[in-house]
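fwd from M.: "can u put these together and see what the complex looks like"

so here's what she sent:
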Amino acid sequence: MYYTIAQIAEKTGLTAHTLRYYDKEGLLPFVERSGSGIRQFKEIDIEWLAVISCLKDTGMPVKQVKVFIDWCMLGDKTLRQRHNLFLEQKKQVDAQIAQLKKYLKKINYKIAYYETALKAGTEKVHTSQKCRTQAKKKMLAGAKKKPAKRR
Amino acid sequence: MYYTIAQIAEKTGLTAHTLRYYDKEGLLPFVERSGSGIRQFKEIDIEWLAVISCLKDTGMPVKQVKVFIDWCMLGDKTLRQRHNLFLEQKKQVDAQIAQLKKYLKKINYKIAYYETALKAGTEKVHTSQKCRTQAKKKMLAGAKKKPAKRR
DNA sequence: CCTTGACTTAGAGCTAACTCTAAGTCGTAT
DNA sequence: ATACGACTTAGAGTTAGCTCTAAGTCAAGG
């Protein structure tokens, strides 16, 4: 049972244009064709596309994804490389999440800042910089000694 | 005490080129100039740049960051908009983190997959598809048996 | 005075990842 | 048979975000 490119576009959220682009870039060597050249996607190809999206959306450039796909096509002799690739990608994603969490803290601080300002009717409520100075003091103190609060 | 563009590039990790580009795009209206037009960055400008990087790195396009900066320059009458902007950005970042965590699970599964394959010396250890089939059963429990009529 | 080096500008060039166009083929429905 | 719509291709165009170049200004050191 085969899917057309339009059906796969529907299923994956990618456009048919993008799928052809990926194919042209060598990301879809596993997709079969009919006698007249029509792409015939199978269930398993949807799994391939999920892996491709995972790598791409976690920051891997298309060219490097192609390298991975090529390794897959080469079989067992590239197992080690592929294993390393995912270990490396895990590191990347861990770092991305850590960075986003830092930014989230900054955003939460800003939300609190604007809530205070809205209540006061003016941003000037912050210009004495009491808050900022105190926050700094807290952070500096926290950096020195780790609070033993766990569980 | 002022910093040159090169010193700020050093401190922020952005290039001097990029800082001029941001300025040209209207992101740095708060940066003062000397009589001869040299940018004079102050401590507070480093904080501005940290906020700009936070918004940009969490997915906000430069043009929308400019809108935010313009709001800041307009003073208290834009407090509500700025508050909303950060609430919205928080949603975005929460969603990004959630998506990355999903991808991380997929990557961890792949790492385990390749570890098993490496131990066995071949990927064929997975071709019985016991694991995958069982996972599918879980996920598809309820949505199965489509007549699936296709060319 | 002249050189050096950091800065200035406008604007061109680059890269990644699409996004679209034009011209053409194919398979089915009227 | 012919029209329709979905597919095919090569290749051009677009966008964001830089990245760099060329030509010029300016202040300090030899």
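replying to her w this: Residues 95-141 of chain A form one domain.
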